[in-house]
């Protein structure tokens, strides 16, 4: 399936996200699912207490701890595939950098509720958050491996600050809690084969339920200072590079780390 980069760029610029239905075929999703389920089974076994009590995601999927060489290469080739890179290039045309991968699943604990947030709120105070959403670009590319309830986003908040309702809910101020509904939220249901591209720093939440298991690929603009988020073990080994079709994302990450 071809994509119109300028149309996607325009939609992302305006709304902070775009979704493409049936972007990946059944065999592409099946192959990806096979690798990711290996990681998930080993990770949950190794982190059983955390998984049972509070986890709703894991990270470092491309690292060497849970996946063998060949499976890591398969993942790197999916991340750098033409389909993924066309989406990345439409939003970050110059020197996009691979940051990390995350896997989102349903919490085991039924008391846990989905919650509104901006990714930057975990690293920055309110004033710094306002600066981050104006100046930096971190992309989530979400690939659901099964049909799921998807995401709820607040369109446009990749560029604008919260209104009073959004801030009070997200920050749990004025007696509000982060799991409440927002009048500005837009739910986007996702099916296996779809892809959702959205800004990490817009107001959003994942929706728990169904067979939620979604691989998120995180990519950032090399002008931003996110080198500390890149784990060396999650980059390809040198011996893998000639087995990867398009190494740009990973080479840009290696370059940034080498000059840091």
Structure description:
With 260 residues, the protein is α+β, with helices and mostly antiparallel strands. It has one domain (5-259): Jelly Rolls (Sandwich). The protein has helices spanning 5-15, 26-46, 48-53, 69-79, 82-91, 126-135, 164-170, 248-259; strands at residues 17-20, 57-59, 96-105, 138-144, 148-153, 186-190, 195-199, 204-206, 213-221. The strands form two sheets. Strands 1-7-4-9-3-2 form a six-stranded antiparallel sheet. Strands 6-5-8 form a three-stranded antiparallel sheet, with no helix packed on it. α1 (5-15) packs across α5. It is globular, with a radius of gyration of 18 Å. The N and C termini lie far apart (38 Å). The mean pLDDT is 95.
List keywords for this structure.
three-stranded antiparallel β-sheet, 260 residues, alpha+beta, Jelly Rolls
Q: Care to give the gist of this entry?
A:
This protein is an alpha+beta fold and 260 residues long. Helix content is 34%, strand content 20%.
Which structural class matches the secondary elements? alpha+beta
Described by strand count, sense and barrel closure, the largest sheet is: 6 strands, antiparallel
The strands making up the biggest β-sheet line up spatially as 1-7-4-9-3-2
Terminal-residue CA separation: 38 Å
Strand percentage, roughly?
A: 15-25%
Overall geometric form:
globular
Q: Flag low-confidence runs.
A: none
CATH superfamily: q2cbj1_9rhob like domain
Instruction: Output the helix-strand order.
Output: HEHHEHHEHEEHEEEEH
């Amino acid at each position: 399936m071809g994509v119109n980069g300028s149309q996607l760029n325009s939609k992302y610029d305006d709304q902070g996200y775009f979704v493409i239905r049936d972007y990946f075929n059944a065999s592409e999703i099946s192959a990806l699912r096979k690798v990711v389920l290996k990681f998930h089974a080993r990770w949950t076994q190794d982190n059983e207490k955390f998984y049972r009590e509070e986890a709703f995601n894991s990270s470092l999927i491309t690292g060497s701890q849970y996946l063998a060489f060949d499976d890591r290469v398969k993942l790197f080739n999916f991340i750098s595939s033409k389909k993924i890179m066309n989406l990345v290039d439409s939003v970050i045309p110059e020197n996009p950098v691979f940051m990390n991968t995350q896997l989102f699943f349903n919490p085991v604990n039924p008391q846990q509720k989905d919650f509104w947030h901006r990714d930057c709120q975990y690293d920055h105070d309110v004033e710094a958050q306002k600066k981050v959403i104006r100046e930096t670009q971190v992309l989530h590319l979400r690939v659901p491996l099964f049909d799921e309830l998807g995401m709820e986003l607040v369109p446009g908040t990749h560029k604008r600050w919260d209104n009073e309702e959004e801030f009070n809910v997200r920050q749990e101020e004025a007696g509000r809690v982060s799991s409440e509904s927002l009048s500005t939220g837009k739910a986007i249901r996702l099916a296996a084969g779809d892809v959702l591209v959205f800004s990490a720093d817009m107001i959003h939440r994942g929706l728990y339920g169904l067979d939620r298991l979604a691989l998120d690929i995180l990519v950032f603009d090399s002008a931003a200072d996110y080198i500390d988020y890149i784990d060396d073990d999650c980059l390809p080994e040198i011996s893998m590079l000639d087995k990867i079709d398009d190494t740009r994302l990973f080479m840009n990450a290696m370059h940034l780390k080498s000059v840091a």
